[in-house]
Fold this protein.
Amino acid sequence: MAKPFVIRFNPSQPQQVSWRAPQSEQQASPIQNGSLSDAALHARGQNVLLLVSGNEVLLTHAHVPSKNRSRVLSAIPFALEESLIDDVDELHFAIGEADGDEYPVAVISKRYLEDLLEQLNAVGLRPQTLLPEPLALAEAHEGWSLLVDEQRAIIRQAGLKGFSIEIEALPELLNSALDFADTEAPQRLSVYHCGEADDLNLNTLPLAIDYHRCSHPLEQLNDRLEKPAINLLQGQYRRQDPLQKLWQPWKQPLAIAALLLLTSSIGMLLQHQQLGKQEQQLRSEIEQTFRATFPNVKRVVNARAQMKTRLKKLRSGQGNLHGLLPLLVSSAQPLAQAKNIQLNGLNFRKGYLDLEVNTAQLQALDSLKRQLEQRQLRVKILSANTEKGQVKGRLRLEAGS
C-alpha cells in the first residue's frame, strides 16, 4: 500500500486539523495546519489516513474460535457485550489480525463514526483508512509509550492496546492501568512531551521513565501507517471502488451465480446454526458470571438486562461518575488481598461507596477497615450482624480529605 496522507484533528480546536503528506526517503514532509477543507485540497489523489481520537475508541481483545472473518465479526458483539456499557446494536466493531483465537478489536459508536464520515464527505474527503490514534504511536521496548499533546495524553500499551485520556487524570488512571495489567505491567515508560513543559506528576509510578521532547504529535504518530493494525472502515463502512461495483454484476454468468447463491445459502444456514449454539452457550456463561458477581440476587430472569442495570447504577452513581472511579481504584487492592472476605454488592450514591461483605470473623472487618484507611479513605462500619456462623457487614467508603 502507498504511503498515506495523514490527517489528525486538533484536540483543543475541533474545527482545525494537522496533516502531513507522504514522506520521501530523502526528505521529511512538513506538518501543516488548517481547516478540514484545506486538508482536503492538499489530499486530492492521495491515500488518506485519518487518525481517530482514542477517547472515542475502545481497544480490546476477544476470543473467537474461528478463522472465518465474517463469522468472527458476527460473533464478537456477543463475546464482548457484557463488558460494554452501550448496546452492541449502537456500536461498530473492527478487527485486526488474529493471534490464534485472540482477535484485537476496536469498538466505536456508530453515531460518532457516521457523523465523522458525513463531515469528511462534506469537504470531499474519502479516506481509505480510519486508524485509532493510540495504534499510530510506536510500541516501546519492554514498556508502554505515552504521548502528551496540550490537554490530551495518548497511551500505547503492549500489543494492539491503548487509550487516550485528559492530562489531569493521567497519573491516577496510569496507576489503575498498571494494577489491572498485573503480570503484564511494563518495566519502562517512554514519554514524548509535545505540549507545554509542565510537571506530569509521574514520579510516583513504579517503573522507569524516559522523557523525550517533540515539537508536534504527528512526528510520533507514524508507526507502520502503510500497514495499519486496525482499519475502522470494515463491514458496512468498508470503502468500495466504484469501478468494482460496476464490474461485479458481470463477473460470472447467471448459471454460476445461481450455483454460488445456493452454496452461500447452505453455508449461511450452517453458520446460523453454529452461531445459535454459540449464543446459547454465551447466554449460559453470562448467567453464571452474573450469579458469581452478584450472589445476593436470588431471582435471575434476564441476566444480561439485570447485569446492565447494575453496571449502569455503578457507573452513573446518580450522575456523579467523577467520584466513583477513585473509590473503586483505591479499594480494589485491599479487597483483592482479603481472602477471607466475600464481596456481595456495591452501591454508590452522593459521594459514598457502600460495600456489602461476608466473613467468618468480625476481626476481618476491622482489618479490612484499617487497610482501606491506609489508602486515604474514610471508612465507617455501618452494620455487622452474625447469622448462621457468618458475619454480614456493611462498610461505607468516602474519599479522604
